[in-house]
What does this fold into?
Amino acid sequence: MPLVSPELRAPVIELMRVMREHHLAGGGEVALLDLVAVLGFRLDDQTRELLRGRGALRLVPYGAEAAEPGDPAGDGAGEFSNVGAPVEIVCYITLPVLGRQPLKITVPERLAGDYLALESSWMLRFDAEASLNAALRLPLARIRRRLEKVTATPQRVDVDVEGREFDQVILLEVPGAP
It folds into this structure.
């Protein structure tokens, strides 16, 4: 069942604009905090500070190293990376039957992958060994999954997690609203 969060629409659109702008400029940086904030988690001040301290994702369009300065990379594709001290944060998710449960998210020493920054959407696909990881402790099991991909448009954010059981759809508009 999708999560409806119209309050995330403006930050998602702003992230889309910034990513595209940096891409066309030949590269740039996006705050890791801005990315995690649009994944639908409620972040307390301490968590925000930890993520701020981790720094930014560096965006580099494919072929940027060989391009002339200022040449736009028109296809929107590139790679991202972030290196820093590992960070662990706790967010809460609501599960059917079990209710609100703590979800431990680990930001490893290195985050990396591919991105796509278009005018009307953005996507981050994480490398398997350089991805956010989540751990959920249930009464009879402990589940660990890694973030594979995040895709966003002005209408929704799709969060694809390893396996299918924890994939998330976040609607940025209230269904049926004008």
